[in-house]
Amino acid sequence: MITDALLDHKWLSPAALALLVVLGPFAGSWLATRRRLTSWLLVLSLVPVAVTTLVPVDRELYELCAVQWSFPTPARVELMANLVLFVAPALLLTVLTRRPLLAGLAGLGLSGAIELVQALVPAIGRSCDTTDWTSNGLGAVIGAALGWGALWLARRTSPVPS
């Protein structure tokens, strides 16, 4: 259902990515001093990740795990959506922990764990795919970089103590 909507409106994922790139650092900078709100938003940003990757679907699997290497482009709707899916959580985790490298690695690890669950639990009707992992990982790296930008912006705009 989500994939069908994205196929019908191929501009949605690139537009969401552009919006995150433009507004993410400013929103993250504002959130830098609001740890509780940032924590809640981080949890909320993980809901779509769980829903789109782990909720069982009714389909027959032809292979449990596909090993292929493709990178997301606007024409590859599903891969682009996988990239966008991990940008906000990584950005928010970077702002919360103030550790961009940790956030990027956490995104890579979470994506790997999701693919492992998909491979080991065929009953959920999802198959693991290395392109999903690379797309999610790239999204996590972009999110961590945006989070780093947000922290830099927060330091630059915070009032200097007298």
UniProtKB/TrEMBL annotation:
This is VanZ family protein. The chain crosses the membrane at residues 12-32, 39-57, 77-96, 101-121, 133-154. Pfam families: VanZ. InterPro entries: VanZ-like. It comes from Saccharothrix lopnurensis. The keyword Lyase does not apply. Keywords: Membrane, Transmembrane, Transmembrane helix. Residues 22-147 form the VanZ-like domain.
